[in-house]
Specification:
Length: 260
């Protein structure tokens, strides 16, 4: 055994976990896994500088665990995103009547079905722009408390702006769902292709139609306070393969380069 082998063996013996967790990332991020054979996966594959990468969304709810992709383990590291406490004085929006509760269940099925959309007629270059000018009022990943009781984490980005502020498409796409829902209020989903979708909640106005193709930067609606809210804001969700990812990371400049 030469010196280098001896050092490698010692590192392996004293720190095996780090070696096993060679691939890792934070919840809500996208992991770019270099691939040779493009036929092996239904995940989004994108070419950067001549190399192919499979884009893997890292689920928030798998923190501290590994996910397996093409026989590779990717560790999702733990991260503290902080907490957010909101008060909703209209208790009928918190403790639902059976009618409202059935409506919410019905609507969540409609939304879930749309989230499953995987179209191949478009492909994003991941050059997203922020859909609305405003102040970020709640970030991705925060532990949520409504009237002091714990709720599901906030896996979206809230951007606060006055009612009527323009919302534009962050990337080209096609509108696949428009609705007026109990929690989300006036709502829409845009499909950007290959499992990349964005959704928009609490709008006051929607300026596009279902199935309409839209350009990046095109106005799609206006900020409002419909559904369950404490004030006017856009609740913006970004999905990749049905996993809610961190919208703030995708709007940064040179996003794809940043994940290599
Ligand atoms: Zn929100």
């Amino acid at each position: 055994m030469n010196k280098i082998h001896a050092i490698a063996l010692i590192v392996f013996l004293i720190n095996p976990l780090n070696i096993l967790a060679e691939l890792s990332g934070y919840p809500g991020e996208i992991y770019a896994l270099k691939v040779e054979n493009q036929e092996i996966s239904s995940n989004l594959i994108i070419k950067i500088d001549g190399d192919s990468y499979e884009l893997i969304p890292l689920p928030f709810n798998k923190q501290g665990k590994t996910i397996k992709v093409n026989d590779r383990d990717i560790l999702i590291k733990e991260k503290d995103f902080g907490e957010s406490r909101i008060t909703i004085t209209n208790t009928s929006m918190v403790n639902l009547s059976s009618e409202d509760s059935q409506r919410a269940i019905r609507e969540s099925k409609i939304i879930k079905k749309a989230i499953n959309t995987y179209s191949r007629d478009m492909k994003s270059d991941f050059n997203f722009i922020k859909p609305v000018k405003g102040i970020i009022s709640s970030q991705y990943g925060k532990r949520r408390y409504i009237n002091d009781s714990p709720r599901s984490p906030h896996l979206a980005l809230d951007i606060a702006a006055v009612s009527g502020t323009d919302i534009v498409a962050p990337e080209k796409g096609r509108v696949i769902l428009i609705g007026n829902f109990f929690y989300a209020g006036k709502y829409m989903i845009i499909d950007h292709g290959h499992g990349l979708l964005t959704s928009y909640s609490h709008l006051s106005m929607i300026n596009v139609n279902e199935n309409q193709f839209i350009e990046k930067g095109q106005k799609v609606g206006e900020v409002g306070s419909t559904g369950r809210v404490t004030g006017p804001h856009l609740h913006w969700t970004v999905y990749l393969n049905k996993i809610r990812i961190n919208p703030e990371s995708i709007i940064q400049d040179n996003f794809l380069q940043s994940i290599l």
